[in-house]
Each structure stands twice: as structure tokens, then as C-alpha cells.
Amino acid sequence: MSFNLLKGKKGIIFGALDEDSIAWKTAERIKEEGGEFILTNAPIAIRMGSVDELAKKTKSKLISADATKLDDLENLIKETMKIFGGKIDFVLHSIGMSVNVRKGKHYTDLNHDWMTKGWDVSAVSFHKLLQTLYKLDAMNEWSSIVALSYMAAQRVFPDYNDMADNKAYLESVARSFGYFFGKEKKVRVNTISQSPTPTTAGKGVKGFNNFIKYSEKMSPLGNATALDCANYTVAMFSDLTRRVTLQNLYNDGGFSNVGVSQDVIDIMSSID
Questions:
Q1: Distance between CA atoms of residues 162 and 170, nearest Å
Q2: Backbone phi, then psi, for 271, in 5-degree steps?
Q3: In terms of residue numbers, what domain contains 193?
Q4: Which pLDDT tens digit goes with each residue over 8-23?
């Protein structure tokens, strides 16, 4: 169902890889709500994924850009403004990567060169993106920027590894840069802390299948799906949330406020 919430709005979507991607689902929903966008990802991700299919489906232009490189970001944003003939209304940062997770390195035995790489891709890239948008004065007033996070930024999830540190930094950047973007340019910056979601990246975390079952049992409303996150992001890009900024917004079925659920208690009791 469409409400034309984003009619006339234009933006950039980072990180769509395949149909399991939250960014992919968000792009589809933005299109349904009347928005237009440029799709972007790193060259290697474009080669590995199927984002070109999404570009054809949504009649969107795909521009290759490495979000860790300022020159790439500047070119992307300038080209976007040229295509749309003006400033931008929304940006989604849906980027995350940990070499240590991929290689199975334990948190107590990290390869710190890999850690730095993952930090740059997953978190510093958000500061680079915000800084480039800010310097180019690329955002319209009351526009909205959203980055996707996870609750491991606040609580311990042992197998989430150094991605937890990356998400903590990401959320801090959203608050700190969001202050200046809001004060000086009336631009909103928020993060959405999503339920564990079976994306390509999510499924790479050790023990993911068991954890998603646990999360489902813990959450009063169950896990939020990728489509749920897409809908929430649409709301954050719309004019209905104009005064929401500097927030880390939980979209997790209530998981973040539950100490223990009756379902989990019952399971533990059956083990005894």
C-alpha cells in the first residue's frame, strides 16, 4: 500500500547487494512511495551482487563509489545533484563489513589491520559521507539521513565481534555530526537499530541462526523483518518525522527492553 509519503523526494541509497538486503527492500518501498534515488555500492560489491537488477526494476541510475574514499563520495554526490537538478532529500547508509568476522577471528585475538579496515568501511565511511554532504551543501532543509545499526553497540553479543565497536562509533558519529547538520542546515541524522536480519552480512556472524531464534522468543512482537526496517526508514525520510534527530531508534519488536521473556524461561525450565 502506498501513501505517496516520498512523492517528489530524491536521494541516495548505499549498500543494496541482493534481494535479502535491507537497502534493497528500502529502495523498493521508496519507489512505491513516490521517491527517486541513485543506487550506489563499492565496485566489488556491484560485481558480487545483483544491484544492477534493482536499478532496472526501479528505473534508477547505479553509480559505483567506494564509501571510504572522499573523492568517490564527492563525485557521487555531485553527479546525483546534477542528475536530479538540485539538492538531496534523503540518504541511507547501509554498509557494514568485518574481515575478522569473515575470517573467524575471536574478539580476544583480532587482527588489528583487519579491524581498522572494518572500522573504516562500517563506521568512518559514515563520517566521510556526512562531511562530504555537509561541505557540498548537498541536502535540502528538513532532509533526512539514516544509518543502520545494531544493539551490540550497547550490549554484549560475543560473536558480533568487532562489528559491535563499529556500530558504537557509527551511532556516535550520527549524534555528533547530526548536531551540526541540524543546527546549521536543518538536516536530520538518525540511526535505526534493527533486529537480527538474515541478510548476506548478518548470516556471516557465527551462531546467527540460533541467535535469531532466541531473539524471536525474546521479542514481544517478534523480530522486525527487512521490510519492517524499510517501512520505518520510509517514515524517517518522510515529512512526518521532521523533528526527530540525533536518535538511535530501535526497530526490534521490543527486544531491547526485555530482560527475559516467559518463552525463554519456559525453554530453560524444560531443560532442567
A1: 13
A2: -70, -40
A3: 10-271
A4: 999 999 999 999 999 9
